[in-house]
Amino acid sequence: MAPPAPITALQGVSVTFGGRPLFESIDVSIGRGDRACLVGRNGSGKSTLMKVLAGLILPDGGTVFTQPGARIAYLPQEPDYSGCATVQDYVVQGLPADERDEAHRVDAVLDRLQVAGDRDPLTLSGGESRRTALARTLVGNPDIMLLDEPTNHLDLPTIEWLEGELLSFRGGLLLISHDRAFLNRLAKRTLWLDRGTVRATERGFSEFEAWQAEVFESEEAAAHKLDRKIEAETKWMREGISARRTRNMGRVRNLQALRGDRAERIRGGQQAKLAVAEAERGGRLVIEATNIAKGFDTAEGGRKTIVQSFSTRILRGDRVGLIGPNGAGKSTLLKMLTGQLEPDEGTVKLGTNLDTAYFDQRREGLDPEDTIRKVLCPFGGDAVMVNGQSRHVAGYIKDFLFDTRQLDSPVKALSGGERNRLLLARLFAKPSNMMILDEPTNDLDMDTLDLLEDVLGDYQGTLLLVSHDRDFLDRLVTGTIAMEGDGTATEYAGGYSDYLVQRPAKEPSVAAPAKAKPAAVPAAAKPRGKLTYKDQRELDDLPGRMDKLSAEIAKLETAMADPDLFTRDPAKFQKTSDQLHAKQAELGTAEERWLELEALREELEGGR
């Protein structure tokens, strides 16, 4: 099937920034019905490319084509409200000039997104501002929508509603987003901006990492044949993907075990409490809330119930996510659970010797004149204390994707993503056994998000996480507390996907017409059973087999790292390369089979 005719396109476009090329001679086209995502490392030029397509930046070379009469709508990361006294003033600018007297269209889209048109845009919260910017993008019925981080600051019901709107949109879409679940559902084509060029594949975002690995492997083979080394950055990126995949499998196994343990405690009630009483004397208990409730008086003279009769027990090592629409009371519940706010009813008991670290939406500021070294070693020297051990600061910053040559670079020279990584490096250098994260994924680029998942995946303390990022929750948490906006808070084992399966069927809790799927039958109602003997035997054998394959792959990668191997013994190089690819494919198949059997086992045993 031929691709759709382009409505807008770049041909041989180049843009330079600070005297160096950001990208050169790139070709990109978006046509009707396209659902493409634009991915790439932080600072690679994704937002700049999108602004060129939107006509906001002129390229230094090449041509920008747009079909005559076509409507292109652009959603920026940070909307500019200059000259707009009200939200309605801002949104109406999304209409073509000859249609701006059709105020009913503005009112309709604002009503759907629950933003008052008479509000001063400068007083909007992050979520309200994002809804307002989306309203301006949607109101003009565009042919092409260019959306830069559309889910930032949105709550889950609004994200699901937006997904439904975009799935039914008949025009062309180009998306930049760090929200993997959002991209997995929407993107059917992937554009990868990498080292100044754009690669394209007709595969969706769900296959991006596999495609990326194929590209790196192909480059490595070509580099060996030409008897030259791959650039250090590319080598690091390729090795990082391989290492992350291996680490992630170990974390998946550990997370499944932790979720099973938490599911037993949620189902077991009082019996589980007695079973851990002795261990709690040694500090295993972190938080115990019993029948807590909280409400606030309203301006109309009534009373709004935020939380009513909620109980939970959080033990050392638990990772608990809090979800719900904006205004449902997540922050209020979090403050009660951590002792920052007294409940109106009930009690909260905190464990002993808690050292708490906070990562909040405000992101504690950095002095722009300080260097990376000074931020991490404020009292001088070159040592950073991490988990009670002294580490050289140069080695520590490599864990957070910095080059050691950046050690004495000032903060003001860092990109936004690099500043976020530096904040993470400082945060995780502080001793803690409980971490509270309030919307940590907002404004993070994909690399920093990967890094945050890696660091939190290895964290041995207790996590309390407020997030609207479904994939992030699925990868990290052992339990989920869902606040539905009506005062009820319910605890479920597992992440967001597990919550969707277990929650009772009900209407969406916000007015935005979220096109949510009907809830599945709760796992507890499923018939219990077990794997066949053959499947159980295979499941038991797979972890050892995967460890063996990983060890074999490591040996082969060590052999391939010899830069003289190809010149010295081309036949051996080819044989080693073929063995490496075969083992990697075998490991991938084993990992997928393990996940399939583990999911089947949990379903049969009613563990979720």
Describe the protein's architecture and organization.
Keywords: ATP-binding, Cytoplasm, DNA damage, DNA repair, DNA-binding, Hydrolase, Nucleotide-binding, Repeat. It comes from Azospirillum doebereinerae. Pfam families: ABC_tran, ABC_tran_CTD. One of its GO terms (molecular function) is ATP hydrolysis activity. Its EC number is 3.6.1.-. With 608 residues, the chain is an alpha/beta fold. The protein folds into four domains: 208 residues, P-loop containing nucleotide triphosphate hydrolases (Rossmann fold), CATH 3.40.50.300; 179 residues, P-loop containing nucleotide triphosphate hydrolases (Rossmann fold), CATH 3.40.50.300; 63 residues, no CATH class; 83 residues, Helix Hairpins (Orthogonal Bundle). It has 20 helices and 20 strands. It is globular, with a radius of gyration of 26 Å. 34% of the residues are buried. About 8% of the residues have low confidence.
